Amino acid sequence: MLDSLPYLKNTDFPAISRNQLEVLQVNLGYLCNLSCTHCHVNAGPGRTELMDKATVNQVLDFIDASINNGGGLHTLDLTGGAPEMNPHFRYLVTEAKARGVKVIDRCNLVILLEEGFQDMDEFLAQHQVEIVASLPCYLQGNVDRQRGKGTFNASISALQRLNALGYGAPDSGLPLNLVFNPQGASLPPEQQVLEQAYKQHLYEYYGVVFNSLYALTNLPVQRFGSVLLSTGQFDDYMALLKTHFNAATLAGLMCRNTLSVDWQGFVYDCDFNQMLKLPLSNGQKTHITQVPSLTGKPIYTLQHCYGCTAGQGSSCTGVIQ
């Protein structure tokens, strides 16, 4: 796989700094039942990296310290790979919810149908875990090309099961949000228009309902960055991102209030910096047991940051503006 980091280093991206920490985004490991072409984590069935229970407990200790010190941390955002494949996933969810913390599961949907995970949907509903589910298109052909043959039908089956539990219904307390990624080297269309198209098509053909759609820009790192380089599209894609830079998105970037944690417990300014192994701006590889005060500290930025500030902007909750 080609490494995009050397092509991202020379940067003129504006300097930005951190606000108060509100969201802890934890990558529980790179193991996944899928190998999607747009994946910036390079996750897949062959990956063995998984957070162990000792590190999970260090994450919980960090949450305790933030709460006890009057900090603003209120959300635990779990990602992967498929975060549910970590053997300590249920333990972490249960303990975080017991602390009054909101928990988000970034789910690929198909995992809910896999052997050993068929009751995962009921567990998530029982603990009122918000689901942010990847469904990169509402058309079968596009999804199967991007995520593998059969994934669209499996995703629809999983969504129908979630709906039966109350997910996606108004006032159910069980939010179900979907994620769109472009098929290739292009910016996502307007989120609000795309959301209406998703809702109409999924309900009309499959009876599926959901709350919101998050339209995300593909960032040129890991697997997607390698594809861009190998197909000769990298420079054109970077030019597209920079041409559409929107300064109004800077205030809402997720790195301003989110700390990213890798499977070993090391922390980064964002999930993309984690994949590029970029340390905090102090240049030190920092473990979650040794995180300094971050408010007001600069954020480590390179060329890939233009992906979060192009057009309407892109964050873990969709467009910024």
Describe this structure in words.
- The chain has 321 residues and is α/β, with parallel strands linked by helices.
- 30% of the residues lie in helices and 11% in strands.
- The chain has helices at 53-68, 89-98, 120-126, 140-147, 151-164, 191-206, 222-230, 234-243, 271-276, and strands at residues 23-27, 75-79, 102-107, 130-134, 176-180, 212-215, 258-261, 267-268.
- The chain has an 8-stranded mixed sheet.
- It is globular.
- The mean pLDDT is 92.
List the helices and strands and how they pair.
Blueprint: E1 23-27, H1 53-68, E2 75-79, H2 89-98, E3 102-107, H3 120-126, E4 130-134, H4 140-147, H5 151-164, E5 176-180, H6 191-206, E6 212-215, H7 222-230, H8 234-243, E7 258-261, E8 267-268, H9 271-276
Parallel strand pairs: 1-2, 1-7, 2-3, 3-4, 4-5, 5-6
Antiparallel strand pairs: 7-8
